Q: What sequence folds into this?
């Protein structure tokens, strides 16, 4: 995880917990185990930490190619009229060096609407990456849904179990902290090109 539940109470990290679950697979759909995910992001106000390296870390997938990262919703930032949607940066490297290294971003948009990427100032040099918009879910507090994400379905038993496990850890630190939203995604690695590719 990007930070431990205990660090959620530190100054600058007092934002609502967001749970990201990633499954990493090879081109044949098999899990990529022990892959390194180098992760960094802005906090919910859109600020990056350049001195303390908060909200940064390196994580490794398990035997099923899965990883869970407890973090916060990344905020928008940029010049007025050209804001970048909140996003997570990641670089993925597999341990056995079979697959191409992947450098990418995963976007968190209001109501999961990729149109939010239309104002990104990077659109001057590349096309919007709407395929990288996470389909997020919310656990409403009363009638309020986090960022208008759809409510987590009661059929998502594994995700609900994961949320409950994380909430139990958070409760050991601060009973007011609970996972409010999250997303799960599957990422497929590409084979290396060239004479020695597998």
A:
């Amino acid at each position: 995880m990007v930070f431990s539940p205990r660090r959620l109470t530190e100054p600058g990290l007092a934002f609502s917990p967001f749970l990201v679950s990633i499954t990493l697979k090879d081109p044949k759909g098999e899990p990529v185990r022990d892959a390194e995910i180098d992760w960094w992001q802005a906090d919910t106000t859109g600020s990056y930490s350049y001195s303390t390296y908060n909200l940064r870390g390196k994580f490794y997938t398990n035997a099923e190619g899965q990883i869970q990262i407890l973090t916060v919703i990344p905020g928008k930032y940029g010049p007025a009229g050209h804001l970048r949607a909140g996003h997570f940066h990641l670089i993925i490297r597999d341990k056995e060096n079979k697959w191409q290294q992947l450098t990418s971003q995963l976007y968190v948009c209001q109501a999961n609407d990729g149109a939010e990427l239309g104002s990104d100032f990077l659109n001057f040099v590349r096309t919007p990456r709407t395929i990288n918009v996470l389909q997020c879910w919310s656990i409403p507090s009363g009638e309020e849904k986090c960022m208008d994400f759809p409510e987590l379905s009661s059929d998502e038993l594994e995700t609900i179990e994961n949320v409950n496990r994380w909430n139990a850890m958070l409760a050991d630190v601060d009973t007011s902290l609970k996972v409010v939203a999250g997303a799960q995604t599957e990422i497929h690695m590409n084979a290396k090109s060239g004479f020695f590719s597998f």
